[in-house]
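Changelog note: in this version the structure field was regenerated for every chain. One regenerated record is shown below for reference.
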Amino acid sequence: MRKLITAGSVGAKIAIVVAATVGGTALVGSSVFASLTATAFNTAAHSVSSGTLKLTQAASGVAGLTAGFTTAVTGVAPGDIINRFIDLSNGGTLAGASMTLGLADSAATKLTTDAVNGLQVTVKECTVVYTTVTGACSGTETNVLTVTPANTLLSATAITVAAIDLLPAGVAHFKFIINLPTNSEVTTNGTLPGGTLQGLTSLLTWTVTETQRAATNTVA
């Protein structure tokens, strides 16, 4: 006697097989995406701070010396020498590596445009403050800049500063020696000669620029 297979029983079996298959796939998929994770971090904050590079220019604080570049220079004649005393201070936390000196003349007269007959500049550095009134160096004096035309300084020029003064809290004591070279001119019947250096006024800005120390690779 044959056993009849009803549509309902076949459908039920197919449903069970499909359900089992889907369920198995779900289990397999779930196990594939499951993972373990572990983390670690420092429990105390790691402090990282940047340094500063600060340079300030001020007149020498020594009483009896002129007030630096704020003291005007008037009535200069050929052969005259003018001294100005300036302190440069590194108020930052980083050391400097080098310095340059630049000059700007907002009036642009022959005092700075004439490289031969115009102003000449020398800069010296003293290991201690310059002496009151006389402006002498009682310590060791070195040349920061040898005699250079003001015209040359219209482009920044390297100056040699003592290494210790480039360190944080370092102070460089400078003497700027400004000279108008000896020059012959003839004024006729009250008329100044053409191209004269007489009767001129230059408005000067002296800029010292400091670069940071060399970058380091710290392993400690």
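Spot check on this record: The first strand starts at residue 55 and ends at 59. Residues 55-66+81-183+202-211 form a domain with the Jelly Rolls fold (CATH 2.60.120).
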